Amino acid sequence: METFDELQTIWSKQPNAISNTSAADLMKKGEDHIKKVRAGHWGTTAIISVLIIVLIGYFLGMKAYQLNGLTIGLTLMIVVMIARVILEWISATRFRSIKPDNSLAEFSTKMQWYYAWRKKIHTVFIPIIYILYVIGFTLLLPTFKTNLSHGMYLYCLISGYGFLTAFALFLVWILRKEMKLLNFLRDLN
Amino acid sequence: MDKKARFNELFDRHYGKVFRLCKGYFNGNEALASDSAQEVFIKIWESLDSFRGESSISTWIYRISVNTCLLYLRKQSTKKEKAMNAFPSIAAEQYSFVEEEKLQKMYGCIQKLEEKDKMITLMMLEGIGYQVISEVVGITEEALRVRIHRIKKNLTQCVQHGNI
């Protein structure tokens, strides 16, 4: 009869790991990662600021106060883009608040909470944002048709809807991946 | 001691243990174990300033290791997930044929356990004390003892007969 102690002896006879890295390398990677996170934070803030400035600039500079397809379409697209960026920013902040040095039980509960929030984003907020964005783009088309050549108009039409279709598929892929993770975390507890 | 010197010391003392824990979790796959162990130490570097000594440094490192390994594959590509299924041969001089076969069986049996039990088993095999394991997993020592009793029985049975 095999005992656990015997198994432990066999296990502990395994050769020691030969590290293919050094402490200095990992410190550098750690510092690079911190810089990347900070840059991402500032990048997000910059994107939101630029979009808001563009939106305000458009209304003031072009004196586009009247409600027409172009104005409503552009406003919708920019506002939902800002909403999307803000949602991602909130998600990133929430994710960073989960510390990896919690106990496994606490960590998995917090991660479960985080992915449940992501599920809400993917199933409630993103579809609304997506639909509004498609409506916004569609409202621009009559202006494109009037002001652009036929070839250019077709290019905008095909590339615009093509991008939106590809983006929808990408969102479904992300949703599936994250839901798989959420189910894994639920099983864990 | 400054942060760099402290990190160097932690790396020298704990890298091997973290690597073995990850290797066990990833069915003996050394490439995955190496990548995830590196990620663990990157997190250690990033969080070192926030370590307040509320637990021992070993408990703190094992917590980061367990949490990182657990989610490592699930955030990666499916290509890496597939790589985990292939068990590499262990060409080590210190093993007889029978022992090598048993070690391979152990890796296979560990994969059959529930995720939490998998981590507890790997820490037990590394000889980590019950108090540290209970702090890492986040369950009471009493509950852990009950769980370990069941795991030991299942694991030995699995190595002998191939099923849990």
Description of the molecule:
The complex is a heterodimer of chains A (189) and B (164). Chain A has one domain. Chain A is elongated and about 80 Å long. Chain A has 189 residues and is mainly α. Chain A contains five helices and no strands. The longest helix of chain A has 44 residues, at 104-147. The termini of chain B are far apart. Chain B has 164 residues and is mainly α. The longest helix of chain B is centred in the N-terminal third of the chain and has 23 residues, at 3-25. Chain B is built from eight helices and no strands. Chain B is globular. In chain B, 40% of the residues are buried. Chain B has a single domain (3-161), classed as Orthogonal Bundle (Rna Polymerase Sigma Factor, Chain: A). At the A-B interface, helix 1, helix 2, helix 4 and helix 5 of A face helix 1, helix 2, helix 3, helix 5 and helix 6 of B.
Which CATH architecture of chain B is right?
A: Orthogonal Bundle
* Assembly of the depicted chains: heterodimer
- The CATH homologous superfamily of chain B is named RNA polymerase sigma factor, region 2, helix turn helix motif
How many whole angstroms does the radius of gyration of chain A measure? 25 Å
Helix content of chain B: over 70%
Outline the biggest β-sheet of chain A.
Answer: none
Q: How far apart, in Å, are the first and last alpha carbons of chain A?
A: 33 Å
The whole-number mean of residue pLDDT values of chain A reads: 87
In DSSP terms (H or I, runs of 4 or more residues), the helix count of chain B works out at: 8
Which regions of chain B have little confidence, pLDDT < 50, spanning 5+ residues?
A: none
Task: Please bin the fraction of helical residues of chain A.
Answer: over 70%
Q: Helix and strand succession of chain A? A: HHHHH
The count of strands of chain A amounts to 0
| Overall 3D shape of chain B | globular
From the 3D structure, determine the CATH topology of chain B: Rna Polymerase Sigma Factor, Chain: A
Beta-strand content bin of chain A: under 5%
Compute the number of helices of chain A: 5
Total domains of chain A, how many? 1
Measured by residues with Cβ under 8 Å of the partner chain's Cβ, the largest interface is: A-B, 42 and 57 residues
N-C termini distance of chain B: 48 Å
Radius of gyration of chain B: 16 Å
